[in-house]
Structure prediction request, 281 residues.
Amino acid sequence: MRTIAVLNHKGGVGKTTFCGSTAQALALIGFRVLVIDNDSQHNLSSMLGVGVKHPNIRDVYIADNSTAPSQLLKSVRKTDIPGLHIITSCRDLSDSDVPHNTHLKNALQTCSLGRFYDYLLIDNAPGIDHLQASAIIASDEIFVPTELKQFAVDGIAEMELTLRERYPDGARITKIVPNFYKNVKRQNSFIAALSKLFPGRVTETSIPFDSVFDELVTDNKILFLHRLYSKGAACYIKLVHELFNLDEDTVWEQVKGKRDNKIKDDARKRLTARKIDGGMS
Prediction:
Protein backbone atom coordinates (compact mmCIF):
# COMPACT_ATOMS: atom_id res chain seq x y z
CA MET A 1 0.00 0.00 0.00
CA ARG A 2 1.36 3.38 -1.03
CA THR A 3 0.64 6.01 1.62
CA ILE A 4 0.61 9.67 0.59
CA ALA A 5 0.14 12.77 2.74
CA VAL A 6 -1.43 15.72 0.93
CA LEU A 7 0.14 18.68 2.67
CA ASN A 8 0.90 22.37 2.46
CA HIS A 9 1.28 24.62 5.47
CA LYS A 10 -0.45 27.36 3.50
CA GLY A 11 -4.25 27.34 3.33
CA GLY A 12 -6.47 27.80 0.29
CA VAL A 13 -4.22 25.95 -2.16
CA GLY A 14 -6.71 23.22 -3.09
CA LYS A 15 -5.44 20.31 -0.98
CA THR A 16 -8.86 18.81 -0.28
CA THR A 17 -10.09 19.07 -3.88
CA PHE A 18 -6.84 17.51 -5.06
CA CYS A 19 -7.02 14.68 -2.51
CA GLY A 20 -10.67 13.88 -3.19
CA SER A 21 -10.43 14.10 -6.98
CA THR A 22 -7.27 11.98 -7.12
CA ALA A 23 -8.81 9.35 -4.84
CA GLN A 24 -11.97 9.23 -6.96
CA ALA A 25 -9.96 8.79 -10.14
CA LEU A 26 -7.86 5.97 -8.67
CA ALA A 27 -10.97 4.14 -7.47
CA LEU A 28 -12.72 4.54 -10.82
CA ILE A 29 -9.66 3.10 -12.53
CA GLY A 30 -10.06 0.02 -10.33
CA PHE A 31 -7.68 0.55 -7.41
CA ARG A 32 -8.71 0.04 -3.79
CA VAL A 33 -8.38 3.43 -2.10
CA LEU A 34 -8.72 4.69 1.46
CA VAL A 35 -8.64 8.38 2.35
CA ILE A 36 -8.31 9.88 5.82
CA ASP A 37 -9.78 13.29 6.54
CA ASN A 38 -7.19 14.65 8.98
CA ASP A 39 -8.70 18.14 9.12
CA SER A 40 -11.24 19.48 11.64
CA GLN A 41 -12.98 21.40 8.83
CA HIS A 42 -13.98 17.92 7.52
CA ASN A 43 -14.40 19.21 3.97
CA LEU A 44 -13.15 15.96 2.43
CA SER A 45 -15.82 14.04 4.35
CA SER A 46 -18.45 16.36 2.85
CA MET A 47 -16.91 16.32 -0.63
CA LEU A 48 -17.13 12.53 -0.81
CA GLY A 49 -20.77 12.59 0.30
CA VAL A 50 -20.29 10.89 3.67
CA GLY A 51 -20.24 13.76 6.16
CA VAL A 52 -19.20 13.46 9.79
CA LYS A 53 -19.59 9.95 11.19
CA HIS A 54 -18.72 8.33 14.50
CA PRO A 55 -16.30 6.81 15.17
CA ASN A 56 -13.90 8.91 13.10
CA ILE A 57 -10.24 9.86 13.00
CA ARG A 58 -10.49 11.72 16.31
CA ASP A 59 -11.59 8.50 18.01
CA VAL A 60 -8.47 6.83 16.64
CA TYR A 61 -6.23 9.52 18.13
CA ILE A 62 -7.85 9.57 21.57
CA ALA A 63 -7.89 5.77 21.86
CA ASP A 64 -5.02 4.09 23.69
CA ASN A 65 -2.44 2.05 21.79
CA SER A 66 -4.30 -1.22 22.28
CA THR A 67 -7.71 -0.01 21.03
CA ALA A 68 -6.65 2.49 18.34
CA PRO A 69 -6.39 -0.17 15.58
CA SER A 70 -9.91 -1.44 16.21
CA GLN A 71 -11.22 2.13 16.31
CA LEU A 72 -9.52 2.78 12.99
CA LEU A 73 -11.18 -0.22 11.34
CA LYS A 74 -14.57 0.75 12.79
CA SER A 75 -14.14 4.26 11.36
CA VAL A 76 -13.88 3.15 7.72
CA ARG A 77 -16.92 4.16 5.64
CA LYS A 78 -17.94 3.45 2.06
CA THR A 79 -18.47 6.27 -0.43
CA ASP A 80 -20.70 6.33 -3.51
CA ILE A 81 -17.75 5.17 -5.62
CA PRO A 82 -17.00 1.43 -5.34
CA GLY A 83 -13.50 0.83 -4.03
CA LEU A 84 -13.22 4.24 -2.36
CA HIS A 85 -13.51 4.33 1.43
CA ILE A 86 -13.00 7.14 3.92
CA ILE A 87 -12.24 7.72 7.58
CA THR A 88 -14.09 10.94 8.31
CA SER A 89 -13.17 13.82 10.56
CA CYS A 90 -15.12 16.11 12.92
CA ARG A 91 -15.04 19.70 14.13
CA ASP A 92 -13.67 18.68 17.55
CA LEU A 93 -10.45 17.27 16.11
CA SER A 94 -7.40 19.12 17.42
CA ASP A 95 -3.66 18.75 17.81
CA SER A 96 -4.15 18.04 21.51
CA ASP A 97 -5.92 14.78 20.59
CA VAL A 98 -2.64 13.31 19.28
CA PRO A 99 -0.89 11.40 22.11
CA HIS A 100 2.34 11.05 20.12
CA ASN A 101 3.32 11.53 16.50
CA THR A 102 3.66 7.79 15.76
CA HIS A 103 0.19 6.92 17.07
CA LEU A 104 -1.49 6.91 13.64
CA LYS A 105 1.39 5.05 11.99
CA ASN A 106 1.29 2.33 14.67
CA ALA A 107 -2.46 1.88 14.29
CA LEU A 108 -2.19 1.65 10.50
CA GLN A 109 0.61 -0.90 10.70
CA THR A 110 -1.25 -3.04 13.22
CA CYS A 111 -4.30 -3.12 10.94
CA SER A 112 -2.18 -4.27 7.97
CA LEU A 113 -4.30 -2.19 5.61
CA GLY A 114 -2.14 -3.21 2.68
CA ARG A 115 -4.27 -6.36 2.55
CA PHE A 116 -7.29 -4.25 1.64
CA TYR A 117 -6.02 -1.15 -0.14
CA ASP A 118 -3.61 -0.15 -2.88
CA TYR A 119 -3.47 3.53 -1.89
CA LEU A 120 -3.98 5.56 1.27
CA LEU A 121 -4.27 9.34 0.90
CA ILE A 122 -4.29 11.59 3.98
CA ASP A 123 -5.77 15.08 3.62
CA ASN A 124 -4.43 17.66 6.06
CA ALA A 125 -5.28 21.10 7.39
CA PRO A 126 -2.85 23.98 6.75
CA GLY A 127 0.18 24.12 9.03
CA ILE A 128 2.65 21.62 10.44
CA ASP A 129 1.70 20.58 13.96
CA HIS A 130 0.85 17.28 15.67
CA LEU A 131 -1.95 16.28 13.28
CA GLN A 132 0.18 16.94 10.21
CA ALA A 133 3.17 15.29 11.89
CA SER A 134 1.10 12.14 12.38
CA ALA A 135 0.38 12.05 8.64
CA ILE A 136 3.99 12.82 7.71
CA ILE A 137 5.35 9.99 9.85
CA ALA A 138 2.67 7.54 8.69
CA SER A 139 3.27 8.26 4.99
CA ASP A 140 5.75 7.12 2.37
CA GLU A 141 5.74 10.46 0.56
CA ILE A 142 4.17 13.92 0.41
CA PHE A 143 2.27 15.56 -2.44
CA VAL A 144 2.08 19.37 -2.23
CA PRO A 145 -0.64 21.18 -4.20
CA THR A 146 0.25 24.86 -4.50
CA GLU A 147 -1.05 28.08 -5.93
CA LEU A 148 1.32 30.01 -8.15
CA LYS A 149 2.25 33.04 -6.07
CA GLN A 150 5.53 34.20 -4.57
CA PHE A 151 4.53 33.50 -0.97
CA ALA A 152 3.48 29.98 -1.96
CA VAL A 153 6.80 29.28 -3.68
CA ASP A 154 8.76 30.62 -0.70
CA GLY A 155 6.53 28.66 1.67
CA ILE A 156 7.28 25.30 0.05
CA ALA A 157 11.01 25.90 0.37
CA GLU A 158 10.57 26.72 4.06
CA MET A 159 8.28 23.73 4.55
CA GLU A 160 10.90 21.36 3.18
CA LEU A 161 13.48 22.72 5.63
CA THR A 162 10.99 22.31 8.48
CA LEU A 163 10.28 18.71 7.49
CA ARG A 164 13.98 17.85 7.49
CA GLU A 165 14.62 19.49 10.84
CA ARG A 166 11.56 18.33 12.77
CA TYR A 167 10.88 14.95 11.20
CA PRO A 168 14.15 13.46 9.92
CA ASP A 169 12.53 10.01 9.66
CA GLY A 170 9.27 11.26 8.12
CA ALA A 171 8.08 11.33 4.54
CA ARG A 172 9.60 13.73 2.04
CA ILE A 173 8.08 15.90 -0.68
CA THR A 174 8.06 13.86 -3.88
CA LYS A 175 5.62 15.87 -6.01
CA ILE A 176 4.55 19.51 -6.19
CA VAL A 177 1.33 20.11 -8.11
CA PRO A 178 0.64 23.60 -9.52
CA ASN A 179 -3.00 24.51 -8.90
CA PHE A 180 -5.39 27.26 -10.08
CA TYR A 181 -3.21 27.55 -13.20
CA LYS A 182 -3.74 30.25 -15.81
CA ASN A 183 -1.51 30.36 -18.87
CA VAL A 184 -0.04 33.76 -18.19
CA LYS A 185 3.58 34.90 -18.05
CA ARG A 186 3.67 35.47 -14.29
CA GLN A 187 2.33 32.03 -13.38
CA ASN A 188 4.64 30.33 -15.87
CA SER A 189 7.55 32.12 -14.23
CA PHE A 190 6.53 30.69 -10.85
CA ILE A 191 6.40 27.18 -12.33
CA ALA A 192 9.91 27.74 -13.70
CA ALA A 193 11.06 28.92 -10.25
CA LEU A 194 9.56 25.86 -8.59
CA SER A 195 11.18 23.56 -11.15
CA LYS A 196 14.55 25.15 -10.46
CA LEU A 197 14.15 24.83 -6.67
CA PHE A 198 12.74 21.29 -6.83
CA PRO A 199 14.11 19.62 -9.98
CA GLY A 200 12.14 16.57 -11.08
CA ARG A 201 9.44 17.09 -8.47
CA VAL A 202 7.09 19.62 -10.09
CA THR A 203 4.42 17.92 -12.18
CA GLU A 204 4.27 18.74 -15.86
CA THR A 205 0.49 18.77 -15.55
CA SER A 206 -1.05 21.77 -13.80
CA ILE A 207 -4.60 21.88 -12.45
CA PRO A 208 -6.36 24.76 -14.22
CA PHE A 209 -8.43 27.47 -12.66
CA ASP A 210 -11.90 26.09 -13.45
CA SER A 211 -15.26 27.08 -11.94
CA VAL A 212 -16.36 23.46 -12.31
CA PHE A 213 -14.69 22.60 -8.98
CA ASP A 214 -16.84 25.09 -7.05
CA GLU A 215 -19.94 23.91 -8.93
CA LEU A 216 -19.26 20.30 -7.92
CA VAL A 217 -19.02 21.24 -4.24
CA THR A 218 -22.20 23.33 -4.41
CA ASP A 219 -24.17 20.66 -6.28
CA ASN A 220 -22.63 17.71 -4.38
CA LYS A 221 -21.47 16.12 -7.63
CA ILE A 222 -18.45 14.01 -8.57
CA LEU A 223 -15.97 15.38 -11.11
CA PHE A 224 -15.47 12.20 -13.14
CA LEU A 225 -19.11 11.14 -13.06
CA HIS A 226 -20.88 14.44 -13.66
CA ARG A 227 -18.28 16.65 -15.40
CA LEU A 228 -16.05 14.15 -17.17
CA TYR A 229 -15.72 16.31 -20.30
CA SER A 230 -14.70 19.45 -18.41
CA LYS A 231 -11.22 20.98 -18.65
CA GLY A 232 -10.66 20.18 -14.96
CA ALA A 233 -11.44 16.47 -15.38
CA ALA A 234 -9.19 16.19 -18.44
CA CYS A 235 -6.28 17.69 -16.51
CA TYR A 236 -6.84 15.36 -13.56
CA ILE A 237 -6.78 12.38 -15.92
CA LYS A 238 -3.38 13.54 -17.18
CA LEU A 239 -2.22 14.25 -13.63
CA VAL A 240 -3.16 10.81 -12.33
CA HIS A 241 -1.34 9.26 -15.29
CA GLU A 242 1.75 11.30 -14.37
CA LEU A 243 1.67 10.85 -10.58
CA PHE A 244 1.07 7.12 -10.60
CA ASN A 245 2.86 6.12 -13.82
CA LEU A 246 -0.31 4.91 -15.52
CA ASP A 247 -1.16 4.82 -19.21
CA GLU A 248 -3.23 7.91 -20.00
CA ASP A 249 -5.46 6.24 -22.60
CA THR A 250 -6.14 3.33 -20.25
CA VAL A 251 -6.99 5.74 -17.41
CA TRP A 252 -9.46 7.57 -19.65
CA GLU A 253 -11.14 4.39 -20.90
CA GLN A 254 -11.47 2.92 -17.40
CA VAL A 255 -12.85 6.10 -15.87
CA LYS A 256 -15.27 6.59 -18.78
CA GLY A 257 -16.41 2.97 -18.57
CA LYS A 258 -17.06 3.18 -14.82
CA ARG A 259 -18.87 6.48 -15.32
CA ASP A 260 -21.13 5.03 -18.02
CA ASN A 261 -21.90 1.97 -15.90
CA LYS A 262 -22.78 4.07 -12.85
CA ILE A 263 -25.07 6.31 -14.89
CA LYS A 264 -26.89 3.21 -16.15
CA ASP A 265 -27.12 1.74 -12.64
CA ASP A 266 -28.50 4.99 -11.24
CA ALA A 267 -31.06 5.17 -14.03
CA ARG A 268 -32.18 1.59 -13.31
CA LYS A 269 -32.52 2.40 -9.60
CA ARG A 270 -34.62 5.47 -10.34
CA LEU A 271 -36.85 3.46 -12.69
CA THR A 272 -37.28 0.70 -10.11
CA ALA A 273 -38.12 3.26 -7.42
CA ARG A 274 -40.76 4.87 -9.66
CA LYS A 275 -42.33 1.49 -10.38
CA ILE A 276 -42.47 0.68 -6.66
CA ASP A 277 -43.99 4.09 -5.88
CA GLY A 278 -46.49 3.64 -8.70
CA GLY A 279 -47.50 0.22 -7.43
CA MET A 280 -48.07 1.52 -3.92
CA SER A 281 -50.25 4.44 -5.02
